[in-house]
Amino acid sequence: MISKIAGRTMNDSQQGVLVVGDTTIDLYPVDGSSITPGSQFEWHIGGTATNVARWAASLGSETSLVTNIGTDVMGELAAQHLADGPVDTTHVTRVDATSPLTLYVATEDDEQWNACRSGDARGLIRVGPLGRRYVAG
Q1: E strands within 34-84?
Q2: How far apart, in whole angstroms, are the C-alpha atoms of residue 79 and residue 5?
Q3: CATH fold of 14-123
Q4: DSSP character for 109?
Q5: 51 phi and psi, to 5 degrees?
Q6: pLDDT of 32-86, one tens digit each?
Q7: In Å, what is the CA distance from 6 to each residue of 15, 18, 80, 98?
Q8: What pLDDT is attached to residue 128?
Q9: Higher model confidence: residue 85 or residue 135?
Q10: Is 73 exposed, middle or buried (0-12, 13-18, 19+ CB in 10 A)?
């Protein structure tokens, strides 16, 4: 059997992973503790779909990602980071939106994290007829 995944033709002897979902820029305090005035942060590309795609690729699977990334500075950083990695980014779409930032904040006991999210490039994912999801582009 021959099928198309992310625009590439594959047969039964080939296996690949297509991941559809969000890409975020995750911010963490450098020292891993609560935020205080003067705290420094490190950033990582995240989002459930993006993390799954990178993990699948790290296990040797041909992996493609379908996601939206904003046209702001953080979106540019995310796009460059993804392009430099092992995941096929042919279907990563730049959209006129703010890239989602997720700030991870330690709880009072520093043993758990709360996530606060701002921005929403994924807001351009709409529900179409019969509940099918498609990415606007």
Answers
A1: 41-46, 62-70
A2: 21
A3: UDP-N-acetylmuramoyl-L-alanine:D-glutamate ligase (3.40.1190)
A4: T
A5: -65, -45
A6: 666 778 888 888 898 889 999 999 999 999 999 999 999 999 999 999 999 999 9
A7: 13, 7, 20, 25
A8: 36
A9: 85
A10: exposed
